[in-house]
Design the sequence.
């Protein structure tokens, strides 16, 4: 004896299969859209990626240093938002250039004349260069250069997407390179910040 299949059951099974198929297609489309959104976000980040480099320019003439400049350059494609800066000599943080000279035990016989720009809590646009320190007299240039291996500069900065980096350079005789690493946030201690 043949059993008769209820047509409504067939319709219900067909609707169920169609519903699961639609759900699968929807989930796949949602995954593709998420992937595309992530790709677009990464492209946007790449177009607004800051990259700070700490550089030094020196020039000599007849064995004397006629120019010594510490520069901060944004070599990236987007703005670099500087959160905080730490400058130290022999591992001892300084709050200002005057404090730096005190902690470095600069002889009183050397006149302190310099030009400087502050980068703390500033924004460096793409390809912007800021001269942050340049001694103006020969004795101070020579003294800074002679002590340049003891100097360390650290800059914590972020992108407009709140990605954080720390760039640091230890030594400023001209041969050293700055290095950067990614961070979750800027965590330099408040009492160690260079605020000049």
Sequence:
């Amino acid at each position: 004896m043949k059993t008769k299949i209820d047509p409504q059951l067939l319709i219900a099974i067909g609707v169920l299969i169609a519903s699961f198929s639609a759900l699968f297609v929807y989930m796949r489309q949602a995954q593709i859209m998420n992937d595309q959104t992530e790709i677009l976000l990464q492209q946007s980040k790449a177009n607004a990626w800051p990259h700070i480099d700490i550089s030094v320019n020196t020039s000599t003439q007849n064995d004397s240093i006629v120019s010594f400049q510490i520069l901060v350059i944004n070599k990236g494609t987007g703005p670099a938002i500087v959160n905080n800066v730490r400058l130290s000599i022999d591992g001892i943080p300084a709050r200002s250039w005057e404090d730096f000279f005190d902690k470095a035990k600069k002889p009183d016989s050397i006149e302190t004349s310099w030009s400087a720009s502050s980068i703390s809590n500033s924004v460096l646009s793409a390809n912007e260069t800021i001269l942050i320190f340049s001694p103006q007299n020969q004795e101070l240039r020579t003294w800074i250069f002679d002590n340049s291996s003891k100097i360390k500069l650290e800059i914590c900065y972020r992108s407009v997407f709140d990605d954080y980096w720390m760039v640091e350079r230890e030594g400023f005789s001209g041969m050293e390179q700055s290095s950067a690493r990614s961070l979750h946030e800027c965590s330099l201690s408040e009492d160690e910040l260079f605020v000049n």
User: Anything to note?
Assistant: Residues 7-47 form the longest helix (41 residues).
